[in-house]
Every structure is written in C-alpha cells, then in structure tokens.
Amino acid sequence: MQDLVKIILKSGKDQSAKRFHPWVFSGAVKKMHGQPAEGDLVAVYSNQDELLGIGHYQQSSIAVRIISFHEATIDRDFWYGKISNAIAYRRTTGLLSDESTNAYRLIHAEGDEMPGLIVDFYNGILVMQMHSIGMYQNRELFAGIFKELLGDAITTIYVKSSSTLPAAFRDTAEDTFLLGNQQSVEVQEYGHHFAIDVVEGQKTGFFIDQRDNRKLLAQYARDKKVLNMFGYTGAFSIYALHAGAREVYTVDSSQKAIELTDKNIALNFNSDVNHHGVVADAFKYLQELPDDFDLIILDPPAFAKHHNVLPNALQGYKRLNQRALEKIKSGGLLFTFSCSQVVSKENFRKSVFAAAANTGRSVKILHEMSQPVDHPVNIYHPESEYLKGLVVYVV
Question: What SS3 class is residue 370?
Fold first, then answer.
C-alpha cells in the first residue's frame, strides 16, 4: 500500500466506518500521524490499529471521504475498475440501450462508491462535477478513462466544479473543456426533447434526477389544468402537455429559466399549445393563486444543505405545501419534492403532514417518489437517497 498519512479514530467512533459508511467526521479523529494537505490520500485506522479505509482528506466537518474499505493501491487501475463497475451497472438497468433517452448520470458520488464525484452524460457531452479537491485533482485521469471506455460516444468532456468545490479553492478551480468544446446540445428523455447548455445551465445542465417522476406525472395530466412551480427548464410542463393537459403554467423567479422553458416548448410542439410562462416569486404567486388548478408541482431548490438550518428548512417546506394544499381544486393532485440531502424521508413527510393538517383538508398519499436508477442509493450511505417526493390526492 502507498505510504499515506495515518489518521486514528477515537474509540467508539469507528463503528460507522466498520459499517462501510464513507464519511469520517472531524470529531471522530483522535490524531493524525502527519499533516495531509487538502485532497491527499490518507489511511483511516481504528484506535486498535485496524485499517478501516483509504480516502481523500479535507479540512471540513467531513474530514475523510473513504474510497476503499480495503487495502489498495489508488492508481489508474483502481479508478478504471470503479468507473467500469458504474457503467456496467447502468448497462444492467437497460438505460444505456434505451433509444428514447440519451441523458443520464454515469457516476453518482457515494452511490457509486466515488464520493465527491458527479458525472452526467448529455448526448455526447460528458460533464464532470467535483465536490472534493481529491476528486478534482484526478480530473484528467478520469477523462482519459471515460474516453477509453465509451469511445466515440463522447465528443466533449467539460469540468464544471468552480462552484461546488470547498470555498477556499473555488477561485483557483477552472471550469474547462478537457475534450472538444461543445457547450450546448439537444437531448431526449423518453422521447421528449430538451435544449441543454452545460456551461450556463444549473448544476451540470439539467435535472436528470426527476426523469421517472416526470413520467409518472404524465399518467395523471390528461385534461388537467397544471401549475409547475420552480419550473426551470419546463420539463414537467412538457411532459404534462404531451400527456394532454388542457392548460399549463410554468412559474420561476428567473427570467432566463422561463426563456429556456419557452425554447423547450418550441422544440417539442409544432403548433401553439396552451402554455403560460410566468416570472414570479413562488410564495407570492401561490398566495394569489386561483383555486381552479387540478394538478400542482412543487420542485423547489434545496432548502437545507447543512443540518444547522434543518429546522428552518422544514418550516419552509411546510409553508410552501400548505399554500398549495389550500389552493388546489378539490379532487386535485399535488406532486411535491425535497432535494435536500439532510431532510430525511420521515422529516419531509412530517412537513407535508403538518401542512395538510393546518388546512383541514382530506389528503391521501398516492405515491412516494425517489430518484431514478442512474442515481443509485448506496445501502451503507442512506444520505445518497437525497430526492424525496409525494403524490397526494386532495379533497
């Protein structure tokens, strides 16, 4: 094994690592034999000198993100095996051979046992987004492996990490093309068409994680008057319109988002459709909403990224859902989501419960939703199941 800085955990603080959870918190560290730099590989040991794993060191509350729970040499062959396994998993799901879909996630961080790394594929464009310096330092190595494994299926590789790395490194990290220079592309998702700009778009360019939930929405949208809050690209709206919704409103606080929605509407429909793009604050818009919407979608950005703001986030979800539940038509459907990793399924459900109770309306749960198969949940890392959703029927 490589000569690595040795990190010793306090007695009793090693159980999480022994259960293959990839995060070592700074409060669990007893001592370090050396001074690792941000992104360095380190070896994690119990207080009984038992090797627990090898991972990337970082100066934060999560001190180490473990990439191997066994003795290993972390070299190109190691990463080649990790990436090969991730691609093989997606082939098993059938996603890579689905001709109606050419946008999907290839690496889902902890879900693929590569914490700190996100890789999305958009019809030939590969976008790599790093959340740790350890992963960022390997960007060119990863690019070479993906090119070798996927060949001509990749025409462009773009690294987009300047806004996701630890704050101290954001000014020095450069968003850059490692292969090609294609910035925008048209993709398909279950046959629906979307314009993607990987440089200017949010996240890596598109919210791939709602793919299956959009498909579910289509089952209920026919003849409905639909409100899509926090609409961004208008993806839910396009699924609703294709499914036969009689009228759809897409609301977002960003003018650029509504312009992108309009562009995607034009990509999908040759003739005029009954769609309205609205630039407005979500809470104010819901407050003044008429009570004739049959279906409302609430897909807000993450209200909480850290546990210290969790109580405020849960109150935010409650207020948002209460306003929608108060306004929705009797017999209506609410599709409501949280993408906050620190908000558990139970906490989100309790927030929606509290919102429903405050309205006094009869509310039934039709579906519980999560993320699609290309965003796998590591059974040892429940936090990798970050997307939670409910479909409720309101009387």
Answer: coil
Joined tokens for residue 233: 């690209």
**pTM of this prediction?**
0.94
Token output for 22: 């990839």
In whole angstroms, give the CA distance from residue 95 to residue 86.
12
Alpha-carbon span 95 to 102, nearest angstrom: 9
Q: What is the pLDDT of residues 252-289, one digit of tens each?
A: 999 999 999 999 999 999 878 999 999 999 889 999 99
- Residue 347 in 3-state DSSP? helix
Q: How far apart (Å, rounded) are the C-alpha atoms in residues 168 and 160?
A: 16
**CB proximity list for 175: less than 8 A, separation 6 or greater:** 158, 159, 160, 161, 162, 199
- The answer to whether the CB of 109 falls within 8 A of the CB of 116 is yes
- Is the Cβ–Cβ distance between 305 and 270 less than 8 Å? no
Token pair listed for 193: 């068409």
* Distance (Å, whole) CA 165 – CA 139: 13
Q: For the chain, give the percent of residues with pLDDT over 70.
A: 99
Q: Say if CB 320 and CB 354 are below 8 A apart.
A: no
Q: Is 131:164 a contact under the CB 8 Å cutoff?
A: yes
* Domain architecture of the chain: domains with CATH: 5-68 (2.30.130.10), 76-188 (3.30.750.80), 207-394 (3.40.50.150)
**298-363-345 Cα angle (round to 5):** 55
Of 252, 143, 245, residue with least CA distance to 202? 252
Residue 86 is classified by DSSP as H
Residues of 317-342 as b/e, b for ≥16 C-beta within 10 angstroms? bbbbbbbbbbbbbeebbbbbbbbbbb
